């Protein structure tokens, strides 16, 4: 059979360069990885206990595809109290992680040929999902506005693309990879231009609980009828490998997303759903301990990276530092991370898959020892390679 | 926002009528359900213990998107020993249940506009997946050939649809809803016509371990280069709610399916993958106990349904009896199951969503007590309603 004969949308999309790089460097037994967005914390004990109980009491059967009613009720209350979401249980679908939440939402809301705005740098999944669904990405570079999307930039994108029907925007707040957390004013300012132009916002709020010195503001407060929120327990409760996501939105649209979800995965695993009920009813403070640690580590990484000569975006949330490679190194992001992995046994993410080849991303959801080793290695590499560059230049 | 403006493929597909009916009748506290294809057995203890260990030892992190190497190795050996599959670990992807295995496979292999054969009656998911992916279903009725797809029927479908590019066939063996298990000759006979016409077979073998008095034969033995197998642990290890599926196929195509899978769900839940390693390394005989029970129940149900006046397909596998409603009742499948649920508190599946409105499906993956109550109620209803029909006719 001819490979050329399969779905061209699948053929044209590339596997995640991030995860491949992470996988490839993992063969090095000495590697210290600050690559994936994965908390180094364990799942809180009370949630683990709930999962164990679900297993030992044989709660192993098919959940209804929307997810357990009890879980959706718990999510309704939890996120109302946390961020002011206003969604009842029948406006919430339980998904297989935030990835499936995004995949089912993108597949449902847009028609082949529709255009969708992605502010960059951005999590690479978004672009891949657009390609897979025959949608047209319109990338908006935010590096000249503090990595914040502004209404002016949206307006300009609309004006610059008269040939396209722009029907959506994927907004990530707090942002991955930059760590930027939007202020209330910045979020509120976006609503009118999106409303006037009938643009759906898919609001990826997976890092919502991880903001430092400021609150998280959801655009659904300003634009409820045009917002679909994707969220989940991977970051707030350190449950990355458990795959528990949530989709929130106006009922008739959530009803459609639920269908796509059903025919994609049937339902999220039942034992994980029981654990999630526990997380959302008694785990309101689970993120607080992690958050305090993350904030210390953020400050540590920002300080050291700045001292090493990197321009650093000041991160108000998430657990990433996005840092501009010193020009003296004459390296793009792939050269930098490959050299650092090979010669110094430290794994970082290149900025290229996020849309900016001059930056590297550091996940500081890692131990203090790992961060100290990474900072030391990065400083060393900058020193070594700047010397080399100078020497080469001298020849 | 206008609902009409979303993806028409999603808008046109209906939510699963099966699961909705099951959900709706569940409000009756007295209902005894033989509806979903769900074992009434619990997950074997050694598998539960492995899952608990994964939780308590904090194995909660992202697995690589293909699935753990150890799990794919275990699957390679397990299914080679069971059914003669010949796939190495790099020809196997771990999915979120068989549903996601099918969804990612259909999405990857076919281009919008391609036609795919579905022999009917069939599991309704298949048709929905074709609609969602802008594919054209070509339904082949198998009720006049003992519910077995023959090469002649494939040939005729090709001749009858000169306007279509038929690029796939979704084969379910053992079959849901009929319980028919193909013989080796029947499977072997299909290979040449599929080979000659370059038709992919998506071979859904989820009930492969549940055959009675005969072996399971995989078409991949005869057509390895054109077969993608979907399988999983839901039925063989009673792990329905755990969502662990597997996709097997030639490497370059599995590589493409893995991409779709990655961008749909990231990966199957890590703790479930650890449990699956245990199932596939030490659970070779887990299905045997269930199978012996199922076979007794099958015989019991077939005997009683035949006595009650139903024409019954003799099931060689799975755990369903597909039975033709006696003509004297003058009822279609929805009328039958709704009356039985409302007046007699027994839940069965209508044949209509499977493509045959004259039949009902009974899942005998249920307790002896439930089956006895169901048989009694069905006999009673046939007696009651046949009397009514006669009385009405007399007036």
From TrEMBL, chains A, B:
Keyword Transferase: yes
Designated name of the protein: Aminotransferase
Residue ranges crossing the lipid bilayer per the database entry: none
Name of the encoding gene: araT1
Aminotransferase class I/classII large domain boundaries: 30-378
Keywords: Aminotransferase, Pyridoxal phosphate, Transferase
EC number: 2.6.1.-
GO terms assigned for molecular function: transaminase activity
Family that this chain belongs to: Belongs to the class-I pyridoxal-phosphate-dependent aminotransferase family.
Superkingdom, taxonomy of origin: Bacteria
CDD domains: AAT_like
InterPro entries hit by this protein: Aminotransferase_I/II_large, AspAT/PAT-like, NHTrfase_class1_PyrdxlP-BS, PyrdxlP-dep_Trfase, PyrdxlP-dep_Trfase_major, PyrdxlP-dep_Trfase_small
